[in-house]
Amino acid sequence: MAKPIKAKRREVARWGAAGGVSMACAFPAxxxxxxxxxxGWLGLVLALLVGIGLGYLGWGLRAKRERVGFAKRxxxxxxxxxxxxxxxxxxxxxxxxxxxxxxxxxxxxxRQAHEDALxxxxxxxxxxEGFAHHFARAKRHGQPLCLxxxxxxxxxxxxxxxxxxxGDEVLAEAxxxxxxxxxxxxxxxxxxxxxxxxxxxxTDLEGGKRFGQRLHAAFASCRSWHSGEVGPNYVSVSAGLVxxxxxDQAPAQLRQxxxxxxxxxxxxxxxxxxxx
Length: 276
Fold this sequence. Notes:
By secondary structure, the chain is of the alpha+beta class. The protein is built from nine helices and five strands, in the order αααααβααββαβαβ. It has a five-stranded mixed sheet with strand order 2-3-1-4-5, sandwiched between helices. A hairpin with a 2-residue loop joins strand 2 (187-192) and strand 3 (195-201). It starts with a helix and ends with a strand.
């Protein structure tokens, strides 16, 4: 009778496992204390399985919390990196804008340092630099070069009779006329007050004379500074013209000769060009 009972118990156990029924429910006597060696072993297995299940569940929860925390830290890290990238981009743009502004200011300062504010012509400083360059170039290559110094006639009377504002208009118009008869290779400039100058590159004395004729004709035909009863109806210019010679060893010597020629033109009545 012992073997059939044991066999029957094994079949019941297999049935309980296959049917998904809890061993503690199917065999409560085995799971309880004093249920015998088989019952104690089965209870230990069940407890172990429950412990493993609970441990796995706890590990899963911890892993999930860690994954969520890692994802959150990763997102925060990405957000911080994006913010840093945006800040760096803004800093680069600010730096580039500042560099462009400084470059524009440098160009503007250089222009102002070499340009006459009233007429827009190169000023005395620019003329001195250009004169030294063209003088040395003509000397080195044996090329012709002429220098013309000019003064507006009776500008003081214009200022006195029609105001300094009208005098400024006359100066600005004179600069426009001077530029209109110059070539792109020439260098016209305002030296200050009513004084102007022109460096005529690759030009001999005959070419300088023709330039003077065109300049006087432009002044004689201009009425831009005259408006009704306001302003003069005619403005003339006196000029002294010289050509670079072997005796001129420095720009100052050529300029002194042009000064003397201009003096002769003004004291001869103005509105003419004298040669030096």
